[in-house]
Amino acid sequence: MNKKIEDIVSEVKKVVIGKDEIIEKVLMAILAGGHILLEDVPGVGKTTLALTFSKVLGLDYKRMQFTPDSVPSDITGFSVYNKNSGEFQYMEGCAMTNLLLADEINRASSKTQSALLEVMEEGKITVDGVTRTVEKPFVVIATQNPTGWIGTQSLPNSQLDRFMIRLNMGYPDMNNLIEIMKDRHHENPLDKVKHVINKNELINLQELAGNIYVSDEIYEYISKLVEKTREHELIKLGISPRGALAICKMAKAKAMLGGRDYVVPQDVQYIFKDVCSHRIIVESRSMINEVNTDEIMKEIIESVENE
């Protein structure tokens, strides 16, 4: 593993305890230039995870709490008339940052979600006909409560597809919970987090990840997996070309964390579920038969391996 990457992971682990796999996958998505969706109940450390990464990576950080009355201008910014200059002055929205924590995104209206969608996809903001580019690197870590909670609504598939991965934090086990309580007895461990790299160094790491070698055999392997999602009897909507590109980018990042400059099939398998589970639409009979998306993803991987 690259020394800088090793230091980043080590520093984040000091604050986010017992979630090593989650930490590594979030870092992979950041190195791959993607956005992260964290779906879980409140209080399991989603906000702490985002804040820790912003400090360790030396990124400007903003947080927006999404509510039903949130409006697009909260994200994009707006123009205000300055009577002294006689001109309209642009006031930045929360998206003008490096790392944006979009908290409880599925509580906002469709119009507000669409405003975030443009920034995530294009890396640009348009206000009053003027387009502004968001500073790089730009990462959105969005959280959402489980569907069905009061005040929530399902994100449209078009927006889900913009997130490179979807992860579940989950509750810590008993030993980790005890360690968390002891760790925060006298002070907040976030106050001791060290700055490991800066923005330019992160951009360089992203470029290195993008240059990881992918053989024709790996491209074919990814294509077969994607094709299987479109043919599976329990899947109504399979993986799009955007999803296939996300698999490829995440596999490159996984190879980089593994200390390799080339992708192997195990890299693809490791990230396949996290990249694909939120992009597919399953048939209703899969719910009746109590077959979840994780089981379907595992079955697809095994079916391609056995061909």
UniProtKB/TrEMBL annotation:
ChlI/MoxR AAA lid domain: residues covered: 228-300
Domain ATPase AAA-3: 35-165
Coiled-coil segments on the chain, per record: none
CDD domains the UniProt entry points to: AAA
InterPro entries: ATPase_AAA-3 (IPR011703), CbbQ/NirQ/NorQ/GpvN (IPR050764), ChlI/MoxR_AAA_lid (IPR041628), P-loop_NTPase (IPR027417)
SUPFAM superfamilies, A to Z: P-loop containing nucleoside triphosphate hydrolases
Identification of the protein by name: MoxR family ATPase
Native species: Eubacterium album
Organism placement in taxonomy: Bacteria, Bacillati, Bacillota, Clostridia, Eubacteriales
